[in-house]
Amino acid sequence: MSEAEAVKMIEATYDVQVLRVRAQQIGDRPAWLLTVMNRGGDFNTAFQVNTLAVDRETGKLLPAVRHGPSGYEPSGSDRREDKVGVRPDAIRSRPWR
Description:
Structural class: alpha+beta
Number of domains: 1
Number of helices: 3
Shape: flat
Helix content: 10-25%
Oligomer: single chain
Low-confidence stretches: none
């Protein structure tokens, strides 16, 4: 699925505006990450921004959360280093979120 096809499919299916598209590997699958915004209107989620992951091969949405070796990992997130392992004094310096 091309970038343009993914944008067209998501906009038509979910009635959103695509703001940005990025290519990324999610696990072993190539995917498009589409940052989308709900249309304006008189409802609570007007103008809400979300990111959807679309499989580039099948065109299907990928789950937002997947099982990882240490629990759940958000889809499309960069693997963050263990900050305590990088800087042992980090745990005492300030809270890490």
